Automatic annotation (TrEMBL):
It comes from the Bacteria. This is Spore photoproduct lyase family protein. The keyword Lyase applies. One of its GO terms (molecular function) is lyase activity. Coiled coil: none annotated. The keyword Lyase applies. Keywords: Lyase.
């Protein structure tokens, strides 16, 4: 007698696809294939865990990168030639532009937050192709960390769905949202950039479309017009991060210009996103009040009423880190003129031993009062959800 098979039929993938994917045919995409997109991300080299390569999502990603060189690695966490802070900025930028890592996310955990979002969902990526000088994402893998995409997106989506359903309806309004549980889906990267090479962002947006008690949320510094086709039906909040252009030119390396992010807001709203703004990070320096006033005036001038009616903002004062300060001095000391202000900042040892630097409570309180006054004067429609 034949023994019953315990594995999948030979013609079926080990990890059955939940989504309507095609491994072979790359999805037509206007922007991801453009020269503009390729200046940011032009993948030529892939480091991948074998299980990630074997997964449906891994196969789909690789089908779009037929010429990329592939190196198998035992873990996306330990790739000595990529990680750490040795090397100069030219190499970092090349790594971030040309290298992609594929891995499997082993621990799926949703953490409570309560500030920007109610919950932090397990991210579908880690790392970024952009190079903001204050970014905390490199804290574990080092500054040169390129995008790692997690290919077990079915498991991530199933985990989030279960978590949302277990909460039931939101019992009362809070600063995150009056009705929906808000899940941050992009804690350790930028979902707009991930979407240039992978459908993880699209799958998460599609999942939240069908979860009436919850909402996805992610901050971004990159305008990816391909996101306009994802039909979020109001269940995804995109938070465009903005800061005065004078700061962004020094600090927001490789991002979309701030004016471009603001100009994209009506298109994203019309495409079905909720559009908020992160006033972030607020960097204190001589003249900051004048430049923030100009930025808020610009928002008021260019945004149509329909964007203003639904907009809200987070204010996030700069937090810096001694280790990152040392790294930045090696490649971008001008950024440190803005970020490292010991007279106004105090240090605090974090749980993982890092020495974090933030404005002292007095400086922060006075600055937040000033910024709130600027908001009331120049953009009174911009409700502040929270300031940190
Ligand atoms: S866009 Fe976000 S994740 Fe990327 S480098 Fe800037 S701060 Fe870091």
């Amino acid at each position: 007698m034949d023994r019953p098979s315990t594995g999948p039929p030979p013609d079926r993938p080990e990890q059955e696809a939940l989504f309507d994917w095609s491994d072979a045919a790359p999805r037509p995409s206007a922007f991801a294939d453009s020269a503009q997109a390729r200046r940011l991300l032009d993948v030529r080299e892939v480091y991948a865990e074998p299980a990630a390569l074997d997964s449906p999502r891994g196969r789909q990603i690789m089908a779009r990168l037929p010429d990329a060189r592939v190196t198998e690695v035992p873990s996306h966490w330990r790739i000595p030639s990529l990680h750490g802070n040795d090397g100069n900025v030219a190499r970092w930028v090349r790594v971030k532009t040309e290298t992609l890592v594929l891995g499997v996310k082993r621990t799926l955990e949703t953490r409570p937050n309560g500030r920007s979002a109610d919950w932090i969902a397990p991210g579908a990526s880690n790392g970024c192709a952009m190079s903001c000088a204050y970014c905390y994402v490199p804290r574990r893998k080092g500054y040169a960390n390129p995008i790692t995409l997690f290919t077990n997106i079915e498991a991530i989506v199933a985990h989030v769905r279960r978590h949302v359903r277990a909460q039931g309806p939101k019992p009362e309004p809070n600063q995150c949202d009056p009705h929906a549980w808000v899940y941050d889906i992009g804690e350790n990267g930028d979902c707009s950039v991930d979407a240039l090479v992978c459908d993880n962002t699209a799958d998460l947006i599609a999942a939240f479309r069908t979860l009436p008690t919850a909402k996805a949320s992610f901050a971004t510094k990159f305008v990816n017009p391909d996101l306009l086709a994802l039909d979020p039906r109001g269940r995804t909040r995109v938070r465009f991060s903005v800061m005065p252009s004078a700061d962004a030119r020094v600090l927001d390396i490789r991002t979309s210009p701030v004016a471009e992010r603001i100009a994209a807001a009506p298109d994203f709203l019309d495409a079905g996103y909720e559009v908020h703004f992160n006033l972030s990070p607020v960097v204190l320096r001589p003249g900051w009040q004048r430049d923030w006033a100009d930025l808020l005036t610009h928002l008021d001038d260019v945004l149509p009423a329909r964007v203003k009616q639904q907009a809200a903002a987070e204010i996030i004062m700069l937090t810096h880190n001694e280790q990152l300060h040392e790294v930045n001095l090696g490649w971008h000391p001008r950024a440190e003129d803005l970020l490292w202000q010991p007279a106004a900042q105090e240090t605090k040892r974090s749980q993982n031993g890092a020495l974090n630097v933030r404005y002292s409570p007095d400086v922060k309180r006075r600055s937040l009062e000033q910024l709130q006054h600027l908001l009331t004067t120049h953009a009174p429609w911009l409700r502040v959800r929270y300031a940190f």
